[in-house]
Structure formats: C-alpha cells, structure tokens
Amino acid sequence: MNAAYILMSLMSLLLVVFAWFWTSLMAKTLPFGVRIPPDRIDEPIIQHVYRDYYTGLIVILLLVEAAGWFFATSYNSLPIATTGGIFVTLLLIYLDFYSARRRIAQAKKSGNWYAGLRQVVMADISSNQQPAHISLLWFIPAFIILIAMIIVAIVRYPVLPQQLPTHFGIDGQPNRWTDKLVALWTLPLPAIFTTALLFGLARYIPQARQQVDPANPEADVAYQHELRHRTSQILPLLATMINLILLVISMITFGILPTSNVNAVVPVLMVMLLIVIIGIMVYLTRTITLRNQRQTRTQPNTKFVAQDDDRYWIAGMFYYNPDDPALWIEKRMGIGWTVNLGNPWGKVFIISVVAIILVSIGMRALVR
C-alpha cells in the first residue's frame, strides 16, 4: 500500500479521534464553547447537536480517506497527501464544530435560557499569593538535549558540504537541499522556541487568574489547583520528547546518522511521536476523571450562575476583552489556557508567534 496514503490516513484518523475525544473535555455548562446555565445541560437540542457532530466526524473521515487515496495513488506525492489531507481534515472538523456551536447558541438565544438568573463573576486569588511553581530541575533533560543539538550543529559545521539534505522522498532518498549556514540555526530554532514557550507556561500557569464556577466554588477551586499542578508537570516532559525528536532530525541533517538509511530512522521517530501522543492522552484522561470527581465534592449552589460571557469569545475559541487585564485565560474549549487578544501583551505574543512562522516559511524558500 502507498506509504503516503498510510501516513495521511493515520494522521487524519488521529485528528478525528481527537475531535471526538475533545467533547469529553467540554464542561457540561460549555457545550461547544457556548455558556449555558447548569439547569439547561440536559436540553434535548444539546443531545441532538452532539449526535450530529459525531456523525459529521465519521463522514469527514470517510471523505478524507477517499480523497487521500486518490491523490496518493494518482500523484504519489507525500506533501500533497499529508499536508493537504491534514489541512482539509482540520477545516472540515472546524466547520462541523462551528455548526454545532451555532445551533446551541441559537437555541440559547431563542429560549432565553438566562432569563431571571443571577449572573456573577467569581475568581480565586489565593493561587497568585502562593503559586505552586514546579522545580527548574524538571526542565534539565529538555535543556540538555537542546544544548546537544546546538553543539552537534557547531561541531559538524566545518566538515559538512555546502548543501545539506532537508527533505526526503517516499523512497528515503533526499530530494531537497539547503545551505548549511541556514540549517545551522534554523534546525535548533524550533527547539529553542518550543522549550522557552513550555518553560514560560509551566512557570506562569500556577499563578494565572483562576475563574471559579459560582455554582460549585469549593470543588472548582480544588479541581483547578490540581489541574494546574498536573499541567505544569507534563509540560517539561513534553518539551523533552519534542527536543529529542528534533535532535534525531538534526543528527540526520548534519550527517551523524546516514541519510542513505533514513527510512530506518522514521519508525523510531514515529514511536517517539506515539509516546508523546499517548502521554497527552493519559493526561487528558486523568483530567476528565478529575473533573468528574469534582461534581461529587460539594453540593452545587443553584442561586448563582456564571456570567454569560459569550460575547468575549470569537467562535468560542479566541478570547478578546480589552477591559480584562489578564493575559492568560482558561480555554473555553478543552484543557489549558489561551491568550487574551484584547491585552496589549497578548497582541505582542501573537505577533511574535506569527513572525516566527513567517521567518520559518521564508527560510524554507531558501531550500534548493
């Protein structure tokens, strides 16, 4: 079977499985990113939307698999099959999600679900006073691998040919090269950026603003404290595995691992990537269990509900509130935190990320 099709199929399947599993990370009062009162979580329309969303994911997978087979067999192109397949899969998944979100938002508006309810905003500031920072020692393996990557590039640079292979065909043979001076700093750059980002998140997350569910504040504070602690622990492990994968790629590019046998290295990279995916899945599973346990810690308070703040969330994913001084906000969808695009520093962060991506694309244009 065509290798490009197999790779595309696996990646598309992982995206669809994640999109399916993603719904388990949604708080019951935030289905598809729409804030609803606790007494509305069992509305029939919500159950119908979930059913249609899952059906849509199955249809998406079948369509992408069929299209991927056509392009992989007709053109035998790994970039078209993988990059195109991933892009189309992500686009279709988002459209499926957006349709579900819009239906719930319309039902909420037409049914006037927040009529007569007392909306409040509650936050816990104790985490700011005593943030539970993880030890810097957790990031030492990631830093060691990053330093090793830089040393490999510097030591190997004088003996390398002017052009280095940076892209390989399905047969494992190089089919694209780049100048070694460009490769010297562009290969370690993603590792430097990723390590710095994950390190900063691990240090900042414990003291980020903790918005609390007013219907069950005690349980929610305990849940979020444990969530932040676990997230701060998994980030250095994630940084270590990503840097390890990039180190192997650098060793291939800089000639320590023979390019003639690159196909033998691909399974190793796939196993490492699989370990990262399994680690993330375990983390998410434990987080879901923790969230479910939260519901039984205390009796919910039905006198108050969280503020209907959908107007600050663009498409249910991107937070924009110039009146909110917080930089990092807990995600409306899934687990983790996102940037407040209404904060000036949030704009600086996004612009910096976009600049790095554009520079990386520009450097790829130099590949010969």
TrEMBL record:
It holds the Pfam family DUF5808. The chain crosses the membrane at residues 6-25, 53-72, 78-98, 136-159, 182-202, 234-258, 264-284, 348-367. The keyword Transcription regulation does not apply. InterPro entries: DUF1648 (IPR012867), DUF5808 (IPR043831). One of its GO terms (biological process) is response to toxic substance. Signal peptide: none annotated. Keywords: Membrane, Transmembrane, Transmembrane helix. Residues 322-347 form the DUF5808 domain. Residues 144-189 form the DUF1648 domain. The keyword Repressor does not apply. This is Membrane protein. It comes from Dictyobacter vulcani. The lineage of its organism: Bacteria, Bacillati, Chloroflexota, Ktedonobacteria, Ktedonobacterales.
